[in-house]
């Protein structure tokens, strides 16, 4: 796939949130401090702890912070899709995703942006030399490593950290790989996105990061989501989606997302 060589003029960072009142204001500010081209979109799933209200307060003095309120807890994958649509509709050049719990350190963003100047997709990776995980129990480390081995093997992708949520895409990638057709709305969304980017012939770069235990709040992942992700990876492997060459004027439409940004 061809790609432009110039650096991005506008960069969007998507922060999916559910009950992140303790983190959202501080993290958003730290993300914005990394580069003057960055804007942040918080996609909030009707957090009962008032996460969205906090964002609205910060917006009064920060024009680069945006908020998309959704009607309920609709899933991580659909939060990413809402953010992708926001980024495509507003002509952002690069679109990043990251967690809103400080497990993804914003200080890595400048290096990820620089790598995306040379690649089509970039991943903040725990499993390349120099990367790692801090403060995780050994059982969770083992589960994460197995999940990545499982995804790499079944999907045949040359990416060490297929499940990483700290990543960035060039605009052309999102316009081409048809992310709005992805069947999973959970964590396997990330694995299928990796598969799609690879199958459409785009280049992927991995930057070593240290993934840290969340700074505040409670982890949202449930065991049922892990099993569901494993099922969707298997489904993608045995019944892969059809790869269709893009038409330049064909812009994918978001499905089932009628929320309006603020």
Structural overview:
The protein is α/β, with parallel strands linked by helices. It is 35% helix and 16% strand. The chain has eight helices and nine strands. α5 runs parallel beside α8. The longest helix has 18 residues. It is globular. It starts with 10 loop residues before the first strand and ends in a 24-residue tail after the last helix.
Principal-axis shape: globular
Looking at CATH, the homologous superfamily is Spore Coat Polysaccharide Biosynthesis Protein SpsA, Chain A
What is the tally of beta strands?
9
The CATH class, by name, is Alpha Beta
Biggest sheet: strands side by side, in what order?
Answer: 3-2-1-4-7-5-8
Query: Spans of 5+ residues with little confidence (pLDDT < 50)?
Result: 247-260
Give the termini distance in whole angstroms. Answer: 35 Å
Report the biggest beta sheet as strand number plus sense, adding barrel if it closes: 7 strands, mixed
* Overall average pLDDT: 86
Question: What is the percent of helical residues?
Answer: 25-40%
